[in-house]
Amino acid sequence: TAFTNILTREDGGVGIITLNRPKALNALSTPLMTELNDALAQYDRDDGIMAIVLTGSEKAFAAGADIKEMRELTFMECYKKEFITSWTKVTTTRKPVIAAVSGFALGGGCELAMMCDIIYASHDAKFGQPEINLGILPGAGGTQRLVRAVGKSKAMELCLTGDMMTAQEALAGGLVAKVVPAGESTVLEEAIKTAKKIAKKSLPSVMMVKECVNKSFELSLAEGLHLERRFFHAAFATQDQKEGMGAFVEKRKPSWTHE
Ligand code: HXC
């Protein structure tokens, strides 16, 4: 499929999606989000793809939803077409999605990164929810996922002031898993390296881990532990369990069939 707002490429079982509206700092327009949804759905269906990396430019992962598109919107238009409601394909993608964030991840851009499973940040990444400065509020999870990531006080501070948080603060708060310092490798390269590592695992295990971890946000501990136990039992129905344990005992590398 030909995209105009994003770029896609594949590398060693990893699908790489680059947001590509550099002049608008990757502002998330409806056409861009439609393309992103399509690309994610394609990779999710593709048996050759085991993990996905989502990135932007050096200057911006994404500077938010497209303010020029939203400016004249009315309540009825938002309500009737369920504005933003369909921007959630990242959250229903079953293969892992790693966000590689350089520069600005603001508003919808920060929210999009938070929909991903792992966030890696470059040393100069900046995260924030500046919607308050536009007379609106976050609309794609900023008031919800940020609280779960960095706690109430920091999330409240960011959403109420619109101030940006540095990569180091994001790391300290637990929003990002790694900050990549200036130097030899870029945040995108580090994200691809991790995605390739995951791509070499058994896909059923990977998908089950992702599903269980994400459910931990929705379920009570008892329900979450129950779900995990059932998936654990189910893993013994896979060929990959026999292969993985067989390979360990026979002191060789496993060869996954992903079944
Ligand atoms: C549309 C945007 C944009 C956005 C930047 N641009 N952000 N266009 N929507 N969110 C455009 C600018 O208008 C400008 O276009 C070009 O990108 C370069 O931006 P500059 O402002 O000139 O760059 P700079 O001075 O480096 O400042 C960078 C910045 C600033 C601090 C990131 O652009 C900024 O504050 N952007 C808005 C951030 C924001 O408020 N995001 C939240 C949006 S609301 P021209 O044509 O002038 O060159 C939101 C709601 C989420 O996300 C709802 C759920 C998804």
Automatic annotation (TrEMBL):
Keyword Hydrolase: no
MF terms in GO: enoyl-CoA hydratase activity
Cited PROSITE patterns: ENOYL_COA_HYDRATASE
GO terms (BP aspect): fatty acid beta-oxidation
One GO CC annotation: mitochondrion
Top EC class for this record: lyase
UniProtKB keywords: Fatty acid metabolism, Lipid metabolism, Lyase
InterPro entries in alphabetical order: ClpP/crotonase-like_dom_sf (IPR029045), Enoyl-CoA_hyd/isom_CS (IPR018376), Enoyl-CoA_hydra/iso (IPR001753), Enoyl-CoA_hydra_C (IPR014748)
The keyword Lyase appears for this protein: yes
Cited CDD domains: crotonase-like
EC number: 4.2.1.17
Protein family per UniProt: Belongs to the enoyl-CoA hydratase/isomerase family.
Protein name: Probable enoyl-CoA hydratase, mitochondrial
Source species: Caulochytrium protostelioides
